[in-house]
Design goal:
The chain has 210 residues and is α/β, with parallel strands linked by helices. The protein is built from 4 helices and 8 strands, in the order βαββββαβαβαβ.
Amino acid sequence: MGINLNKSALIIVDVQNDFLPGGALAVGDGNEVIPVINQIQDKFDLIVATQDWHPSNHGSFAANHPGKEVGDFINLNGVNQYLWPIHCVENSEGAGFPESLQGQSWNKIFKKGTNPEVDSYSGFFDNGKIEETGLGDFLKGEGIEKVFVTGLAADYCVKFTVLDALDLGFKTYLLTDATKGVNVSPNDTIEAFTEMENKGAILIQSNDLP
């Protein structure tokens, strides 16, 4: 495929305890991305991670809306919001990174979902495009032109991170064997892969890296 890793960054999206088996919002087989991500980190000069970091009163939590259940939708600050179980509450064990994920060479961690009034799937912006995390400016300030996206979950936070990276002008690769989906509906991950590819993302596997 002839991939050149010059001026590239690895983005590790939300590989946190609550999204792993046994967590509050577990992604099926989510733990399987960890050895893949660990194996490829030494190929990149710049590595960033995103971290879901919600206040306990976050508007995306079904428990904060009496009479609502997980899976219901509400209008949250003008955005049609899917209601989730309580997860990745700031400073909780669930919001932390698993010990098995190697983070010693990460350059920076970008927290997201900190505003209770709007959810934030993407590592770059919240869902209403009201606030930025600073990730885009950081990458551009470092001279990054290509990003390689991994993590959880393929059909939500990974997908929106990929789409925003494309919108910001980065050549964007998705490592399909280093992501897993929630699959609220059975085909969500496959459909997310198709949507990302149609928007310009390049779908590869970790063994395609030089």
